[in-house]
Amino acid sequence: MPVDPVKVAIKGSTQDNLPIEDVVDGIVILKDGSAAVVLQVSSVNFDLLSEREQGALVFAYGGILNSLNFPIQIVINSTTKDVGNYLENLELAKNKQQNQKLKERTASYKKFVEETVKRNDVLSKTFYVVIPFSGLELGIKNAQKQILDVFNPIKKIPELPYSKEYIVEKAKVSLEPKQNHLIRLFSRLGLEIKALNTKELIELFYKIYNEDTANNQKLQNVDYTAAAVTGK
Description:
Blueprint: H1 5-11, H2 14-17, E1 20-24, E2 27-30, E3 35-41, H3 51-67, E4 73-80, H4 84-96, H5 100-119, E5 123-133, H6 140-150, H7 164-187, E6 193-195, H8 198-209, H9 211-214
Antiparallel strand pairs: 1-2, 2-3, 3-5, 3-6, 4-5
Helix pairs in contact: 4-5
């Protein structure tokens, strides 16, 4: 009797359907044997720069992209910022203020923030650069396996073509020089850039895949040597 791939997919857990197999030594291992490192980059308030500074920054940024001989992915993660604590602190500051004028100005500013939040969502944006490592770089064995998996639609949980240790070893050799090169290039623009470690990556993916609950709870007693992308 033929197997319905849709029913098989529905029975799978959230973890089964995520592309991430594990995070080891700051390297994200995907279920097809490919991998990646993620670098977080600081931002620049472009509007505050002079026209000349804006032009120079755009020219330098274009030069970086044109100089690369390997692919990268630029990701912008937008999240709604909770200003509740900020408003509470403003209220405390207002109540402690002895100067009546400053007290009135604090109250006015608090009201301005509240009205701004009501009209528009306050978004916090974080910028990342992802450097991928193709599973095809692991060798012919993985290339053949990926081709066979295309013709096996009911296979919901792909197996790693090699051990995690081997994949991490090969990925590090390929990714570390690229990572260091990008850090040097972006640093020349005056931007802070750093590679996320295992703990930071797990927390990032947890927030992405558990957006509704991540803001109200923190990861505690997590074994960062094992996969902990989702609590579902």
